[in-house]
Amino acid sequence: MRKKLNTIVDGTLLLSGNEAIARGAWESGVHFASAYPGTPSTEILEAIGDDYDEIDAQWAPNEKVSLEVIAGASFAGARVLSAMKHVGLNVAADPLFTLSYIGATGGIVIISADDPGMHSSQNEQDNRLMAKAAKVVCLEPSDSQEAKDMVGEALSISEDFDTPVLIRVTTRICHSKSIVKVGPRREVPVKGYVADIAKRVPIPSNARKMHSRVVKRLKDLSAWGSESSLNWIEDGDRSVGIITSGISYQYVKEVCPEACLLKIGMSNPLPWNQIEKFVGMVDKVIFVEEGEPFLEERVRSKFLIPAIGKDIISNEGELNPELVRIALHPGTTKTITFYEPELPARPPALCPGCPHRGAFYCLSKLNGSSTGDIGCYTLGMMPPYNALETTVCMGASIGVLSGIEKAVGREGMGKLVAAIGESTFVHSGITGLIDMVYNGNTGTVMIMDNSLTAMTGGQENPTTGKNLRGEPAPVLDLVKIVEACGVKYIKVVDPHDLAEMEKTFKEEFERDELSVIITRRPCVMCYRPVKKSVALLDPEKCIGCKLCMKLGCPAISWEEDKPDISKLLCWPNCDLCVQVCPVDAISKDMEGLE
Ligand SMILES: Cc1ncc(C[n+]2csc(CCOP(=O)(O)OP(=O)(O)O)c2C)c(N)n1
Questions:
Q1: Is the pLDDT of residue 339 over 70?
Q2: What is the pLDDT of residues 517-576, one digit of tens each?
Q3: Is residue 270 a contact partner of residue 222, using CB atoms and an 8 Å limit?
Q4: Quick check: CB of 473 below 6 Å from ligand 1?
Q5: How far is CA 179 from CA 17, 18, 204, 242, 301, in A?
């Protein structure tokens, strides 16, 4: 459990955007929240779980389910919040697009945490476009204060206009801290469930009416937005007017504090009357926006004005004040230099003692490999293993493996298995496995169960026996689930038992039927043994064969002609190097270090 929030000084708190969103949910009477972890959104639900007991909060197995459960709670008149990273909204897109038609009984706020610059994501995706496609309101905060306030605004809009509201934040907003004025919780009674078939069952005859209502809703919202304090004009030198939103607003303010600008807080639907007023005020418009030319394309398609945007600001990566300064004042020579310390390049690596290491070591030793998924084990792609060859999206490893088999047959597939973590398997791997059973595939799926959603920082999931708040929860039995999918050959193996792991792969490569290997050992970062036993090298016995280097363990480095094992990095309960050394030169000091 985290500590409770820092004490309020004069009614303020220093909060990250994520903590501010959690606070906003609490202050505005949210009753129920659900999320699936994903950077940079994860801390929103963690903060609710840690600090706000009045909100019933829970992890969902995936984002689609998260949105569906909050939809249900909204139908019953509760105020609700669902949070996810940008790619999570793709998973939740199916309910989102229809929920837009159905609307909200209790206010619905959905947080999409986008990741420009791909600090920890597989793509850059500007979910303002998703909001537009789904025809839902999109709000864009530019600091923690707005992030908090916009949750309350979003819930009111949602209830007043009968629509889900998306709050689109970005990594920089989620993780930076700024001062936030806070207030008490406002209790909002749950309205209660009242059946309304015409409103909530979009068979075509109902859905057509719903669609007309949505079109009108967008028009009404646009008119409302022009009067709302969500969007504002700051007057200045009118030879150039800047239209901006989100974090870009802060960069503009830093670089041109006196600029004439239009700050868009509601980017879907756009406040057209206000925009018309603004473009009429200025000689030329510059769009400063991170990501896609969302504001630019829409405004330019409506008003024939001299304007520039993406021709001077890239749609790749994150913006920063320096990039904005160069774009707005190209002639200036004074550059702000941030002295970045020169750090040695450090490729990502599985942690010392990581349970995934044994599996990838054996796979690569046998010249096998895997179609991969998204989790810590994606690092199986790195040398020295080179044992993971594809990653598409969460859950795709299994479908990709079966597709390869369909294309080139069992022979052509060779020693390829699907590698997927237990959280990802529950998220969206199960259906791929069912597809394999149903369609007669013969490959091997390896579920790498480290009893935690490790990559996002160690969240609980339905297999771990604990809920969001760390309280006991029923354990989803992976073996029984896999069995129930129709798989006959299932083996649970400790990936740190290298002999057994190798034997298991060999057996499954030979087997002409679908099988599942569950590699089971807890994540070392989250389940730390008390005693820290360390590996010791006997230099007299070492023959310099470098087999231990093949483990790719960060604790082992090569020094001239012998390995060096760092006592600091060497991990308790791991003896992989002891197992691979052919001459017993490595032993484990089980007495451990203090
Ligand atoms: C649709 C989607 N939601 C969330 C994420 C964030 N994310 C990346 S990996 C991962 C799960 C990792 O857990 P697990 O599969 O158990 O593997 P581990 O990291 O524990 O080895 C999550 C939630 C994502 N990339 N895509």
A1: no
A2: 999 999 988 777 776 778 999 999 999 999 999 999 999 999 989 999 998 889 878 899
A3: yes
A4: no
A5: 10, 13, 48, 26, 38
Question: What's the CA gap between 495 and 529, in Å, rounded?
Answer: 18
DSSP 268: E
Cα torsion through 485, 489, 495, 500, rounded to 10: 170
A 10 A CB-CB count for 204 gives 6
Q: Supply the angle between the helices 144-161 and 17-27 in degrees, to the nearest 10.
A: 40
Q: Which of 158, 144, 63, 75 is nearest to 109 (CA)?
A: 158
Residue with tokens 């796979």: 363
Tell me, using a 6 A CB cutoff, whether residue 464 lines ligand 1.
Answer: no
422 lines ligand 1 (CB under 6 A): yes
Give the Cα separation of 593 and 554 in Å (integer): 19
How many A from CA of 102 to the centre of ligand 1? Answer: 30
Counting from 1 in the atom list of ligand 1, the atom nearest the Cα of 377 is: 21
> What strands, in cross-sheet order, belong to the sheet with 237-245?
232-234, 259-264, 237-245, 285-288, 307-308
419 lines ligand 1 (CB under 6 A): no
Residue 424 has which token pair? 């990802």
State the pLDDT at residue 1: 42
pLDDT at 272 over 50: yes
| Cβ of 38 less than 6 Å from ligand 1 | yes
What's the 55 CA to ligand 1 centre distance in angstroms?
25
424 CA distance to ligand 1 centroid (A)?
6
Please tell me if the CB atom of residue 88 comes closer than 6 angstroms to any atom of ligand 1: yes
Distance, CA of 393 to CA of 372 (rounded, Å): 9
Cβ of 324 closer than 6 Å to ligand 1, yes or no, is no
Taking 80 as the threshold, does the pLDDT of residue 9 lie above it? no
Q: What is the pTM of this model?
A: 0.94
- Contacts of 315 by beta carbon, 8 Å cutoff, 6+ apart: 291, 292, 293
Could you tell me which residues are beta bridge partners of residue 520? 449
Strands (E), 388-500: 416-421, 444-449, 489-493
Dist. CA 423 → ligand 1 center (Å): 7
Query: Which pLDDT band holds residue 590 (cuts at 50, 70, 90)?
Result: low
Give 72 Cα–ligand 1 centroid separation in angstroms.
Answer: 25
